[in-house]
Amino acid sequence: MKRGEQTRNIILEQTAILFNKQGVAGTTMSDIMAVTGLQKGGIYNHFASKDELALAAFDTAWGHVKERFEQLLFPRQNSIDRLHALLNLFLSYSDNPPIEGGCPVLNTALEADDTNPALLDKARGAIQEWREFIVRTVERGIKYGELRPETNADMLADMLVASLEGAVALSRIDRSVQPLEHVLSFLRNYLEREVRISS
Amino acid sequence: MKRGEQTRNIILEQTAILFNKQGVAGTTMSDIMAVTGLQKGGIYNHFASKDELALAAFDTAWGHVKERFEQLLFPRQNSIDRLHALLNLFLSYSDNPPIEGGCPVLNTALEADDTNPALLDKARGAIQEWREFIVRTVERGIKYGELRPETNADMLADMLVASLEGAVALSRIDRSVQPLEHVLSFLRNYLEREVRISS
């Protein structure tokens, strides 16, 4: 890796964490200079503006989340097990988070929703990827006789994403894993009792 | 109402909306001066700092949410109907929100969680009020034979708050009421089928 590329990566990794913890508006160039050890010129050499950096840093954060999810998904083949892998991704925010500061998708979306359409688009795209994973998994599970055919894939997708995002947020607010464990316990039980076809 | 009190109320009402839409860090004194029509001195006359204003503005926003909830709750006596009133509070964010910019509790909590402990405490207190309402309602419902005695009040409280908060967020991100409607439909169905005792 060339030196310029290394510097660019350091900036992205460090600011992705800062933005996730403090928000983009809550992070100053001085904060970014402090964590990267770079001068202002060294940062602007790679990113024309804080907004451009925020877009690239979201991709870095989301890349960490997806990498973790791939690890949890492998080598699960059964569709219910694959849905449980998504639950475990959110559980990991409490003990070994893919990135510090909570879920970057919800943090970014709620900061950007009234202020930054380009950044909101990134967060919306990430949520859409989760929903499509769930819908695809449910459709495949129904086809292979693992899930009840009456399962409403779109409704389940919104329900899982909403409750998991909300649960990570509650656990961060409470500084306790309990809300997340309550929600995971509810959802696991629901998937086993109402969605899985017992073999 | 005295003139000073009127001015204070105007500042609180206007900045509560600004903070809810843009975040506290994303709102400048110039923004506050623009929406209130006041000079900087006129604002500092009532609030010593933006942080002090943020704490008071949260109380204003939360006051609007609670006022709406009281309207939806009245005159429901049955405990299931009282839980449905909470669902309807969150539905109101899509058509007639108690305050513009999404749920002030989640917005505030996620902005403040790594940066502003006093403001985070306010948001945590609000969430706690919802949870206590749910737990109290469930316990009362079990006592009066309206709800199944095996209902886990604490788990249901976390599940309802997490999924409703997540649903409002998803609907704002998508600019569509559909995620919220999916989640509400799921929860209504769950309350009717798994929690209510049919008479």
What do you see in this structure?
- Two copies of one chain form a homodimer.
- The first copy, chain A, has 199 residues and is mostly helical.
- Chain A has helices at 3-22, 29-36, 40-44, 50-73, 79-95, 104-112, 117-143, 153-174, 178-195.
- In chain A, helix 1 (3-22) packs across helix 4 (50-73) and helix 7 (117-143) packs across helix 8 (153-174).
- In chain A, 44% of the residues are buried.
- At the A-B interface, helix 6, helix 7, helix 8 and helix 9 of A face helix 6, helix 7, helix 8 and helix 9 of B.
For the report, how would you describe the main beta sheet of chain A? none
Q: Count every helix of chain A, treating DSSP H or I runs of 4 or more residues as helices.
A: 9
Q: Determine the N-to-C terminus distance of chain A.
A: 51 Å
Residue share in helix of chain A: over 70%
> Ranges of chain A with pLDDT <50 over ≥5 residues?
none
Radius of gyration of chain A: 19 Å
Strand elements of chain A, count: 0
Oligomer: homodimer
User: What amount of the residues of chain A lies in strands?
Assistant: under 5%
Shape category of chain A = elongated
